[in-house]
Each structure stands twice: as C-alpha cells, then as structure tokens.
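Severity: low
Component: inverse-folding endpoint
Summary: output formatting inconsistent between runs
Steps to reproduce: submit the following structure tokens with default settings.
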C-alpha cells in the first residue's frame, strides 16, 4: 500500500501567500462572475478545494467551488439564480444554465457539548468562521488552498502546497480525530490517493485502518455516492484494492469481500475467483478512460456479478433436479432469483433506487441470453428492440468479454443484431411477433407449455 513515512511535526503558517501563475483563461467564467460580485459587495471570496488542487496539477477541474465570508442568506440575496440547499451543511447553488457554482460560507470546527461525550462524529456543520478556520476544518491539506483569481494569489494555511508538490495525502490536524468526525473521509482518501497517484501519510493510513468500522455509522446515501464516484473514476481497481487493505470493503460490501476470500489462502481457486473480479474492474477502468461513463445500474452490476453467479451455482447444486440437469450452469430463473434477492437488500441498505436495483439485477440475469442456445420462442431482434434493459445488459457482457478475453465475437454479433433491430421496419417486427406466436402454438399442441429458457415472466424477449 503506498504510504508515506513522513511523520514530522507540521508548522502552522498564518497564511502563506503565494503568487499564482495560472492564466486567467483557465478559470471558469461563471465562477469568476460569482467571485466578482461577492468581492464588489465587500465580501471575501475565493476559489477553493478540488478546483484549485486540479488547476495546480495541470488538470481540468470537473467543477468550481467558491468559499466566501458572506452567509448563505446574503449570497442568496445577491443572486436571483441562487438556491440554498442542505441541512447538515447549508450552502448556495448559483445556477447558470446547466452549470452549478457551489458557493459555501467559511465554516469553523463545530463546538462539542458535554452531551456529545467522546463521540466525534459531526452531525451539524453550520458554524460560520474565517477563511483560516475554514481551511483548518477541511479534510486534507491539498484540498484547503484558496485562490483569488483577481489578485492572482494562493492562500495556504496548512502547507497544502508543500504536500501537493511532494505527492502526499495528509489530513489537517490529528488524522484519528478527522476520520472520526466523518468516516466517509476514508473513502475520500482512497479516491484522492488512487486518482492522483499520491502516497498516504503514515498516520493518516493508520487512522483509516483503525476507524474503518465507523463507516457503518455514516449516512448511506453519502457512502453510495462515494462508492459510485470510485467506480467511475477510472481507478476503480486500485480504489477497491485499497478499500480492502484498510478494511473499508469488509464493512461496506461484506458480500464482495467474502467473495474475494482470504488473501493468505493457499487455495488456487480462491485467487482465481478474486482475479476474475479484479479483471472486471480493470475492464471498467479501461472503459472509463475511453470516455464511457457507466450508469449507476452498470456500476452495481459490476460489483455483484461474480458473487451472484457463484451463489446461483451453489444454489443450483443444492437444489439440483431434473429441471436443471447441469447444476454448474444455473437457469436464468435461478440466476434472476439470486440477483433480485441480493440487490434488493443492497438497495434497502444504501437507499439505491428500486429502478437502478432492478436494472442491475436484470443486466446480470440476462447475461446467459448472449451465449446460451436460444429457446424456440426467443426472438433476438425483439429482445434487442423491445427489452428496456438490453443496452445495459449488452454493455455488461462487453465488459466481461474485455475482462476475460473471450466472447468478443459474440458481443460483435449481438451488436450487429442490435443495429438490425434499430433499422427494422414495423412490418419486419410484426413478422417476428407472428413467428413467435406460431412457435408457441406448435409447442402447446405438443403438450409443452413451459418456456425453454426457464426464465421468469418478462425475461423471454417478448414484448
């Protein structure tokens, strides 16, 4: 695990002001509008956080955040296109078309009462403060830099520039306290370390390991949001390996951690099983680097695909019968049952929408459609044309083909079928439906009323 052994005492500058050579053209014009208006009204206002960090690293920021001395009500009064959001942390979204400039008031660390005892978890964060107090209450030094784009100055209260240049990820203040205040910072540390290729300072890493169990207390929607960011980061493989190493994976995704097995196991099948999962994440990362951003359902399906397939195989062997002559190759129906059960639990635990959970379960269930012999009543063209989950199911099949180096010709054949379905005329589609009905009638006359696929209702490629 990449960990820095730098444990020297940290100075406390007040602040260092460093000239910025970032060209004005690099800044977002809407963020500049917000800062300009606030400064004209005699408020302090700076670019802050990830956008400053990324600009200094020569990266293009995904969004621009503003920090100001103005209260949320004051910001709202200055911008007719502003809207106050949040409870735990009130801020203002200033909207320009489809873009949001997030504008937050300087905060200071919340004061603890006697009722809080030794519990450091922050549940309210609306105590306003100064720029320095705001910098010191942030999570990592590299995220606590302020930039004044009009004076071309960087304000550094926490030696963030030094850590940025050294490629070190370090909490501001005592790492154990900072992680206990908000355990989701463990996932944020994983995200920044893997995305930026930074080393994690030794004390910060030790705190991540110690406090990983506290993630169970964090708000589930926030945890899900960070998990999805990791899966869409292009560094999902490294991120989940790091989560496993610090214990976060076992807390948040115990089924996935159990599927990966004991890292010290001498059983070759355990390592092969884990390798199949890591290779799937590697394929996902490759896809992201190609500019393909996975949907929420696709991310969830990638996480659970291998475990669900394994559980369905075990379930088939346990309940083997004449209807399932090959227990190692479970029917689509049994695979769907396991997928629905597993993902329904995940959806409830993490407040995932039922729609995304169902789409992920369907994508996993339909994988056999692409490789198994087609049942008599199955129409590939109608499947590609009419099934609402066909696209995501095929995308998942493409990822697994990339991961395991087989099935690419099958994927391309289905891609061609999808093109044919997309250009099929209404008359051609009607002919396909009639063909299916005729096949169904012939089977019923023979006394067999079952669907050869063994699929639950709605999974047979029919409309």
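Observed output (run 2 of 3):
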């Amino acid at each position: 695990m990449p960990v820095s052994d730098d444990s020297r005492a940290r100075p406390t500058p007040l602040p260092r002001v460093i000239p910025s050579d970032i060209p004005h053209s690099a800044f977002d014009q809407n963020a500049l509008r917000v800062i300009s208006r606030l400064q004209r009204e005699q408020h302090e206002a700076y670019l802050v956080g990830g956008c400053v960090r990324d600009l200094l690293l020569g990266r293009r920021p995904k969004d621009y955040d503003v920090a100001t001395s103005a209260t949320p009500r004051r910001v709202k009064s200055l911008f007719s296109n502003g809207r106050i959001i949040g409870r735990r942390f009130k801020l203002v979204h200033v909207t320009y078309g489809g873009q949001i400039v997030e504008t937050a008031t300087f905060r200071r660390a919340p004061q603890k009462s006697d009722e809080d005892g030794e519990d450091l978890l922050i549940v309210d964060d609306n105590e306003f403060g100064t720029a320095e107090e705001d910098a010191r209450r942030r999570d990592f030094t590299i995220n606590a830099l302020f930039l004044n784009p009009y004076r071309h100055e960087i304000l550094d209260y926490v030696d963030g520039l030094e850590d940025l240049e050294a490629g070190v990820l370090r909490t501001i203040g005592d790492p154990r306290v900072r992680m206990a205040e908000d355990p989701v910072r463990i996932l944020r540390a994983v995200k920044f370390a893997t995305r930026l290729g930074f080393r994690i300072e030794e004390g910060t890493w030790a705190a991540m390991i110690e406090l990983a169990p506290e993630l169970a207390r964090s708000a589930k929607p926030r945890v899900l949001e960070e998990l999805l960011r990791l899966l869409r980061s292009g560094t999902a493989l490294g991120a989940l390996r790091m989560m496993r190493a610090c214990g976060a994976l076992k807390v948040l995704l115990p089924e996935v951690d159990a599927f990966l097995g004991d890292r010290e196991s001498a059983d070759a099948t355990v390592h092969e099983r884990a390798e199949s999962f890591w290779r799937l994440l590697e394929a996902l990362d490759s896809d992201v680097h190609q500019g393909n951003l996975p949907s929420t359902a696709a991310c969830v399906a990638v996480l659970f695909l291998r475990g669900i397939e394994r559980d369905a195989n075990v379930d088939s062997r346990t309940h083997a019968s004449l209807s399932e002559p090959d227990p190692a190759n479970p029917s689509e129906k049994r695979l769907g049952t396991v997928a629905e059960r597993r993902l329904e639990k995940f959806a409830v635990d993490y407040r995932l929408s039922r729609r995304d959970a169902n789409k992920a379960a369907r994508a996993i269930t339909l994988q056999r459609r692409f490789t198994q012999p087609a049942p008599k009543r199955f129409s590939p063209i109608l499947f590609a044309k009419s099934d609402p989950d066909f696209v995501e199911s095929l995308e998942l099949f493409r990822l697994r083909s990339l991961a395991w180096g087989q099935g690419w010709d099958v994927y391309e054949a289905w891609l061609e079928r999808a093109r044919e379905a997309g250009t099929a005329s209404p008359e051609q589609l009607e002919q396909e439906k009639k063909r299916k009905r005729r096949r169904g009638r012939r089977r019923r006359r023979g006394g067999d009323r079952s669907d050869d696929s063994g699929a639950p209702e709605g999974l047979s490629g029919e409309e």
